[in-house]
Amino acid sequence: MSGHSKWATIKRQKGVNDAKRGQLFTKLANAITIAVKQGGGNTDPEFNASLRLVIDKAKAANMPKDGIERAILKGAGGAGGVELDEVLYEGFANGGVGLLVEAVTDKKQRTVAEVKNTIEKNGGTMAGQGAVSYLFQKSGEIIVHKNGKTLDDILTVALDNNVSDYEDVDEVVILYTQPGDLQSAQKGMIQGGFAVEEASLVYRPLSRISVAPEIEEKVVQLVEKLEELDDVQKVYTNLEYSS
To answer: What is the pLDDT of residue 3?
Structure first.
């Protein structure tokens, strides 16, 4: 098993920065609403794995309970309001670095225009459906705090819970699973006595590409600007970050 801790560290640092933005609760609420819709209107987290994952993330971010409940109700069609859709945009950043942009929107034309404008203003190009996504694999991701445990301690339990890969990143270990194994693996790690910071579905690059330092900096800036857009939930790249 192998991984790339630099990329994982940057993603975790971005998560901390995102928590400082006023947009965070809105993005979490949209993600909750979509999870209910995609679960066929099922509002019970015990029987809607995607909803459970998002609610856990919302609680970890100290999102108010009533905000979570309103988002669930909206997803079930009981709160009226606008219709939300989940969309995935594809593109290339400087140096041919692949981009996947997950968004939740009530107006696709507005969102695609914002994403396209941001990418093109920062040296990239939008791409058609399938032009970039084949470079990534959808995976479950579980972030486990070491809390005095060794890597071997964590992996011994992880391998018994269908974890297929990992990244050792400072004070945490990031575990990867097949999408369908994510919830059971998360429960297995918790039952094994480990502190799970977050569990979510991600797009993980099948391989990474290296670019010059000045290009890398431009890619990082583009990712940050995309993540600042109200409708954008997550941004993924296949950039090989320098150490």
So the answer is: 40
